[in-house]
Please model this.
Amino acid sequence: MYASVWLTIIRRAIEYLADIRLHRSFTFTPNSETGRTSSLRITFSDLGHQNVEDPADEAVILFCGGMFGSRYVGAGSVDSLAREHRIRLICVDRFGMGGSQNVGLEVRVQTWLGKERDKHDCDLLALT
Model:
């Protein structure tokens, strides 16, 4: 009995961590208009509700967690809560965490605030 409980826990943990929605990535391309001279890879989770038929009708929250923030923050109970309220929740790995590339400290805040973001990249990511 004890072994079967552990096997169930391990199986559920593997299923949870293998969920493709936790392993998304996007690469922002260099853009001379925004001053981004090299590509920038960001990893994120894409949880909650998604309106496949009409993505423009989605309510999207882009969550950029605090210290040690990562895409796993929004998983679990937050995913089910977002589904219940029909919200799409994008949880981004901070720079240098998970698969997101590191960004120099001197430009980190400007990068988070979108100084290097452009509309084309956001359209591709379907966040506009």
Notes: The chain has four helices and four strands. Residues 22-125 form one domain.
